[in-house]
Predict the structure.
Amino acid sequence: MDQKIRRLILEKAAKTRVKTGGDRLTVRQLAADAKTSTQSIYTLFGGKEGIVVALFEEGWKRLIDELEQLPVTTEPLEDLLHIGYCYVRFARKNQHFYELMRGKGVAGVSVPDREVSHAEPWLKITRDAVQRAIDAKLLSGSPELIGRQLWIAAHGHVDLSNHGFLSPKEDESVVRQIAAGVFAAFAGPKHVYRLNQNNVKDLVR
C-alpha cells in the first residue's frame, strides 16, 4: 500500500511542478491532491526536500526500467537507434517526469550532486552499445564522447518535440537521421566502407 501511495504522490507532485513551475509544490497541497495525510508524506519522504529527490530518482528509474527491456543484438548501431527511440518515447509519455530529470531543483529545493548518479545506468547502457560498435569496427573514438553526442542529440530532439516544434510522427525518422550523422562523424573502417557504397539503407545498419 505504501508503494501505491508513494507512486501516486510522486505522480501528483511531478504534474504540479510542470503546471506551476513548482510554486505550489507543498506538502499540504500534495496531501490534498493525493487524498492522503501530510503525516503520510512526511513518513514516506521526510518532507518537501525528500519529494524533490524522489522525483528525480523516480524519473530515471522509470527510464532505466524501459531501457533494460531492450534486446541486445548483433547490430550495435541498430541497438543505439532503439535506445534513442526508447529515450524519445519515454520523454513524450512521461513529460512531467522528464522535465524534472533534466533539472536539479524545484521551487528552491536542489537535488544533491550525489543523486545525479541515478543517470549513470542510462549512460552505461549507451556506452556499452557504443563500445560494441567500436569493437565491431563500425565506430571509432571514445565511448564516452560518442555516447554524450548521442544523448545531446536525443535531448535536443525531445526538447523541440515537447514544445511543439516537431510532430511525434517524425520521431523515428529524425532520430535515425541524427544518429546517422553521429555515426558518420565517428565512423570506423566497416562503417566507412558502407558509407562509400552510397547505400542509404546501410547508413544506420
Q: What stands out?
A: Confidence is low (pLDDT under 50) at residues 199-205. The longest strand covers residues 105-106.
